[in-house]
Amino acid sequence: MIQELTFSQFIKQYSDDDSCLEEIMDIRFPRGVRCLRCRQITTHYRLSKRSAYSCKECRNQVYPLAGTIFEKSSTPLRLWFYALFLMTHTRGRITIKQLQRELGVTYKTAWRMQKRIHKLMALNNGDLLATTEEDETGIKQVHKWVFFKRFEISVVEKQDSSD
To answer: Whole-angstrom Cα distance, residue 71 to residue 62?
Structure first.
C-alpha cells in the first residue's frame, strides 16, 4: 500500500521553486538528459534565475517545463505543486474559491489552474507530465512514477528524429 504524503512532508520536500523544478527534472529525465545536439546523455547544469538546464559539452539548453501544464505560467511552481497536493487529497473536489484562498492567488488564476489540472487528468488518466519521445532504436520509453504517492503517472521520453 502506498502511504500518502502528509502536509508537513510536502512542506519539507517542496520548500521552494527550485526543489519543484528538480523534481520535474528527475521525473522527465530519470536516466539523465539526452542532449539533442551532442546525441548522448550528458551532465546538465541549472541556469541561474531560469527554469532551464544547459549541456556541459555543447551548452544546448533543455527546458523541463516545456510541454507540461506549468509551461508559460507566471504562477510559481510551488503554488502549482500545492494545488496538485490539495487536489489529490480532496480527490479533485476542492472548489475554485477554496483553492483561491489556500493558494493566495486571484480567482482567475485558481480557476485556470484547476481547469488545466482537471483537463489534463481527464485526457491522460492522471499523466501530468506527458511527453512523446523515442530512444535511439525508435522504441517509445515509458517511465512510471507516483505523484504525491497517490497518482501513478507515466512519462514517455522521445528523441528528436530530425536526422
So the answer is: 13
Supply 83's cell numbers: 494545488
Tens of pLDDT along 65-118?
Answer: 888 888 888 999 999 999 988 887 777 778 999 999 999 999 999 999 999 888
User: What average pLDDT does range 52-75 have in this prediction?
Assistant: 86
The cell for 87 is: 487536489
DSSP state of 53: E
Please state at what angle helix 77-89 crosses helix 96-103, rounded to 10 degrees. Answer: 130
Distance CA 33, CA 157 (A): 10
Question: What phi-psi label fits residue 92: left (phi over 0), alpha (psi between -120 and 50 degrees) or beta?
Answer: left
Mean pLDDT estimate for the chain: 76
